[in-house]
């Protein structure tokens, strides 16, 4: 988000307004204007997230205890076992991990913004 937000803010609003005046629906405005302009920053953000997650996963696997696995370790354990049930459980744990991460980032941003106003 820290990479994409400045790129999103840099898009000239007049481009969106011109597309809307010409009759483009909101979905087409995003597809034809926003997405091409955000393609490179999106690639950079994806690569950075992937690189960071690989490093964090290695540290997590090294430090995690077998009797209390962390979410990434539990996902890994379910993915290495065959079967649709294990794949489904891993997918559900991925959703839980994404929700926990999003909540943590949102909370940290709010706290940072609040501290900046004080």
Walkthrough of the structure:
- The mean pLDDT is 84.
- The protein has five helices and no strands.
- α2 packs across α3 (26-63) and α4 (71-79) packs antiparallel against α5 (84-117).
- With 118 residues, it is an all-alpha fold.
- It folds into two domains: 1-63, no CATH class; 65-118.
- The radius of gyration is 20 Å and the shape is elongated.
N- to C-terminal distance: 24 Å
Low-pLDDT sequence parts: none
What summary fits the major beta sheet?
none
Structural class: mainly alpha
- Radius of gyration, in angstroms, nearest whole number: 20 Å
Global shape = elongated
Portion of residues in beta strands equals under 5%
Q: What is the helix tally?
A: 5
Fraction of residues in H or I helices:
over 70%
Topology record:
Elements: H1 4-10, H2 13-21, H3 26-63, H4 71-79, H5 84-117
Helix pairs in contact: 2-3, 4-5
What keywords describe this structure?
mainly alpha; 82% helix; 118 residues; single chain; 2 domains
């Amino acid at each position: 988000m820290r990479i994409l937000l400045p790129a999103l803010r840099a898009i000239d609003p007049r481009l969106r307004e011109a597309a809307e005046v010409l009759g483009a629906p909101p979905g087409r405005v995003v597809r034809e204007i926003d997405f091409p302009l955000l393609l490179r920053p999106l690639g950079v953000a994806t690569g950075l997230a992937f690189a960071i997650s690989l490093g964090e996963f290695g540290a997590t696997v090294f430090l995690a205890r077998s009797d209390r696995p962390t979410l990434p370790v539990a996902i890994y354990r379910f993915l290495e076992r065959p079967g649709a049930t294990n794949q489904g459980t891993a997918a559900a744990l991925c959703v839980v991990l994404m929700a926990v991460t999003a909540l943590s980032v949102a909370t940290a941003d709010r706290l940072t913004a609040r501290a900046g106003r004080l």
